[in-house]
Amino acid sequence: MKNRILFIVVFLVSGFAMAQVQFDAKPSKKKLGVNERLRVDFIMNEDGDNFEPPSFSDFTVVGGPNQAVSNSWINGKRSYSKTYSYFLAPKKTGKFRIGQAEITIEGEVYKTLPFEVEVTAAVDEPTDGNNSTYIASENLHLVAEISNTNPYLNEAITVVYKLYVSPRINVSDWRQIDNPKFSDFWSQNIDMQRLQVENGEYQGEPYRYVILRKTVLYPQKTGKLNIEPLTLSVSVEVPGDRRDIFGNRFYETVDKTIAAGNRTIEVKPLPEEGKPPGFTGAVGKNLKLKVTVDKNELRATESLQAKVQVTGQGNMKLFDLPPLNVPATMEQYEPEYVEHVNTNLSGMYGSIFNTYTLVPQAKGKYPIPPLSFSYFDLDSESYRTLTSDEILIDVGSAPAGRASSVSGSVAQQAPVTGSQFRYIKLNANLKPIGESAFIGSPLFWSLFALPLVLIPLAIFFGKRREAKAGDLRGNRVRKADRLARKYLSEAKRNLGDQKKFYDSLERALHNYLKAKLHIQTSEMSKEHIRDLLTSRGVAAGTVTDFIKLLESCEFARYTPSSSVAMRQDYDKAVEVISEIDKQV
């Protein structure tokens, strides 16, 4: 019984070890001209003996066998590779079969799979399978993987840029030449702590790859939209023509420029059927509407806070919250907008809310009517409308002497109580004025001369005020400057913090346009903004500067920026907003 168990264990272990051995034949191409060269690599992941190549009867061996060994550790795992390379010149055109190669590893014989190669007529520009640049091109690939090429308007998609590197070559360094451009998209780069090398496949072959960038995009237009490529300059170490005394080839470094290629996205419009009247462009999943108050009972002229909040996953920063409606006898102030939104590969998620300050002016019961919020649900591909509950506010009498009660629409003074004058001191302890005569005293002459001094000053400041009021251009400049600094105050506070500064700057530019041109966030594509500003009479140079500022906010998500550049962008934003306000 023990011998049987031991046999089974040895059999399973040996079977597992055998299953880990890989021995493959990889041609550099499967279709070539008769005047080109073919490279065939026989790769194994364990060291072996008695290598037997196939018969290359239809080819002439012009190089090889060259032997290369790679032994590396990636993330704590050992990676071994041994390669025999042959360089072949075809003898004639046609389809030819290259048979099996053999190798003995730990007493077991392994064979590669046969494959076919098609040899065509001579080509105009032959490529040499032994050329370093060609080898780098065939073994290095930059790919843009897109999660969804047919999304709805304002539906999140993800672009992941991967650099694939074949085990035949090594990458020593890379640098970015050109950033991808996401025109007509709202984009958010996902922060990556560090680059990590992983094992994978590219077109069915084993490769190593590293994820360089992850970006979430929200299309802002329908139809075919183009994603321009990411371009890199990569230093690649490839086997060269020189060999050492043992016949092993030296590696040489080749600088190769690669690009991810243009990608086209077909964006579907949101359906018109069933679109609610109050729809503001919200698209997402599991969105929730919540309206809350910090107190349900208070006295007149006291304040309470009402919060209108939407939570869930979707284009959280790209739609407007429904406005709060309250009775006319309740004073309402402009809301404070706050967003707690994070971004991952699924898109934006979190919450956004408006906080209103409300002040009831009289005693009574005040209902806050239900709010409705509509969004396009991506799961069901239909519109959904959420409705909040009605909130009843119970308002008591105002504190004595501070408020008024209301009867109908006419405010009446609250009755006076005995304690209303409790803060007046009844015993004044008055003291008589001294016996000296007032006429002729210093106080008398001071009061006498005071009008003589004040009259010239009043005339002087009156003329200055009239001159200032008549300076229409100067008033417009000052008003525009105040408006620009109002919108850019948050960005100014975040100078020095690149991410917060450019987020604040972009939000300030959008809020200014919303207030000035009365447009929604979903309409803020750069082309639409350019058309609107031009139609309002804004100078072409000012429009170009505004668009460049928006592009600077986009580029800042991917490239580092200095404090000097941030200060320049801030000053430019102040200048551009001031110019637009003067011209519109």
Automatic annotation (TrEMBL):
Residues 1-19 form the signal peptide. PANTHER family: BATD, PROTEIN BATD-RELATED. Pfam families: BatD. This is BatD family protein. It comes from the Bacteria. The keyword Iron does not apply. The chain crosses the membrane at residues 443-462. InterPro entries: BatD (IPR025738). Keywords: Membrane, Signal, Transmembrane, Transmembrane helix. It comes from Salinimicrobium flavum.
